[in-house]
Amino acid sequence: MKYQKTEVKLDNSLSFWKHFDKEERVLFYNPLNNELIIGAKRLKTFGQEENYNNYLYVFSSRTFFDSVKDQKWAEFGNETVAFEYYLVEKKGKQTLYYFEDLVEIENLKIKSNEHFYNISADDYEEWKELFANVYYEISSRKVNKVVISREVKIVCETLVNTESVLKNLLEKNQNSFIFAYFKNGKTFLGATPEILVQKEKDNIISYALAGTILRNDEDDELQKMMLLNDRKNRYEHQIVIDKIADVMKQYIRDVIIDEIKILTLKNLHHLQTRIYGKDNSTLSEWVTRLHPTPALGGNPAYKALEIIKKYEKHERGLYAAPIGIMDENGDGIFVAGIRSALICKNMVFAYTGGGIVDKSECEAEYIETNNKLKTIIESL
């Protein structure tokens, strides 16, 4: 049985998200084609080799590491799921897809709420210890890059209004992929600029994203040039390019590496390079091959992951992990779950990180993580 469809006219597509507030849900906005997909109510969970025929879209997520112990991440990730209902918004048109029973979606006014909150503690001393340990490992030539992260606990005075947070993320981060996954009373959401891998028929596309500078209202073009010519950022970026290209060359004869470009976001500029070729493997296979890139874990990956496990005191869960949407043909896109937070009632666990190389400075990297944290802070 295939999905049936009907056109709807909602003032805000988040009315659909709100309608299913007790059900498992996913939201995924793709800025490359200006398409918003929201799914609700789990319909089917897929095995590893199953195809997705007759299922409009499937949502797939993996935890950063193979397993997690922290209870707040329990039952999140490592699944591929189809939903009973989908709302798809593209080119100003909203289409409601339903598997069996049509539902009436109330046209709600989605407001931006201002949350009053406290950031629970200054974690710079903890960061200094983490940085020093990782820098020692880099200095001893065991690795040339390790991506370290912070878990920042934000306590709100009221329950977090996720519709408001999502509305703000969508409005303020138009060049980013916006994602949200609600399950068992908790929501993991964010606005990520980072594509892990994309598949369009036999076209496989990945992007190196590493190297960061703050935007400047007075002379933003100068900031771009500074980033493009900065030796430390270019070195960090090249590590990511080389690793992605090396993995792709194991399966693809002709791998093409584009020129390094600037990706501009609301608060930051990043170095970005597209790497692509042709292959008939599944998107899921490519996710396994590429995750984590040196932009998310480090290089060499196995050693960097050992170091992260040894020194980071929090669990990453879905942070920096693959999150994706695929159609029934298996085409789709996986992004990295960065610039993200896990929301549970009035608690926001926000995640932010940065790549450490031999020319990294502790305080500068900490400031960079605070700049990245603005994505979540501004959404509250």
UniProtKB/TrEMBL annotation:
Keyword annotations from UniProtKB, A to Z: Isomerase
MF (Gene Ontology): isochorismate synthase activity
Enzyme class: isomerase
EC number: 5.4.4.2
Domain Chorismate-utilising enzyme C-terminal, first and last residues per copy: 124-372
InterPro entries in alphabetical order: ADC_synthase, Chorismate_C, IsoChor_synthase
Keyword Isomerase applies: yes
Catalytically driven reaction(s): chorismate = isochorismate
Transmembrane intervals: none
GO biological-process terms attached to the record: salicylic acid biosynthetic process
Record-linked Pfam families: Chorismate_bind
UniProt keyword Isomerase present: yes
Entry-linked PANTHER family: ISOCHORISMATE SYNTHASE ENTC, ISOCHORISMATE SYNTHASE MENF
Homology family: Belongs to the isochorismate synthase family.
Official protein name in the record: isochorismate synthase
